[in-house]
């Protein structure tokens, strides 16, 4: 996957991790929307395996989103009327990608196992971030995109999240792209891009 970001060429590869760090309002979330195919109002080229995404049909995008990209939105996009567990299981029922035992283990690791049956609307934003993170891990993917994933997390939970991501890189060979406005997910990144 490659993209010309802010008048430069950038290549994202599987098995590597990237940090895109810049001030608020400089287009990090827009970049993710471009790569995910939600927005097309950009100049330059975005390619998956040397194929320009502007040539993608709706069916192509559906396939890419189902099989190649896991995304943790900055605004999370959880269903507030559903419980934490239901938000994740709903996704996993669509993908059949993870065992519930693994999902519950992540809930426990991230200190929200007691929130499994709690409606999302009653949880703090930091707790919701952890649920959205676990939901993203239930998506088959070549790349994981995390848009400001630790903005409301303490350092301990950020470290646990980083260890889970590093394990996904090691075990599944995913590529990881993380954005930050200063509070970063602490990982050993393959490349840091400062804008």
Summary?
The chain has 195 residues and is α/β, with parallel strands linked by helices. It is built from six helices and nine strands, in the order E-E-E-H-E-E-H-E-H-H-H-E-H-E-E. Helices cover 37% and strands 18% of the residues.
Overview of the structural elements:
This protein has one domain (2-194): P-loop containing nucleotide triphosphate hydrolases (Rossmann fold), CATH 3.40.50.300. The model has no long low-confidence stretch (mean pLDDT 93). It contains 6 helices and 9 strands. The strands form 2 sheets. A 5-stranded parallel beta sheet has the order 6-7-8-3-9, with helices on both faces. α3 runs parallel beside α5. With 195 residues, the protein is an alpha/beta fold.
Whole-angstrom Rg: 16 Å
Distance between the termini: 19 Å
Share of helix among residues? 25-40%
Spatial strand order of the main sheet? 6-7-8-3-9
Query: Can you tell me the number of structural domains?
Result: 1
Question: Structural class of the secondary elements?
Answer: alpha/beta
For CATH, the homologous superfamily is named as P-loop containing nucleotide triphosphate hydrolases
CATH architecture: 3-Layer(aba) Sandwich
Strand content: 15-25%
User: Averaged pLDDT, please?
Assistant: 93
- Shape field: globular
* Helical segment count: 6
> How many strand elements?
9
């Amino acid at each position: 996957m490659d993209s010309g970001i802010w008048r430069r060429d950038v290549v994202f590869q599987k098995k590597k991790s990237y940090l895109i760090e810049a001030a608020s309002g400089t287009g990090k979330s827009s970049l993710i929307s471009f790569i995910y195919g939600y927005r097309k109002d950009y100049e330059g080229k975005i390619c998956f395996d040397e194929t320009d995404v502007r040539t993608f049909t709706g069916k192509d995008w559906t396939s890419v989103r189902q099989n190649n990209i896991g995304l943790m939105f900055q605004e999370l996009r959880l269903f507030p009327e559903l419980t934490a567990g239901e938000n994740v299981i709903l996704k996993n029922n669509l993908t059949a990608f993870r065992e519930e035992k693994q999902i519950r283990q992540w809930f426990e690791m991230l200190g929200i196992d007691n929130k499994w049956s709690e409606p999302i609307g009653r949880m703090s934003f930091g707790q919701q971030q952890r649920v959205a993170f676990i939901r993203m891990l239930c998506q088959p993917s070549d790349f994981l995109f995390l848009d400001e994933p630790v903005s409301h997390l303490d350092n301990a939970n950020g470290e646990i999240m980083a260890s889970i991501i590093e394990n996904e890189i090691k075990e599944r060979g995913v590529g990881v792209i993380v954005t930050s406005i200063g509070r970063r997910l602490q990982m050993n990144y393959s490349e840091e891009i400062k804008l």
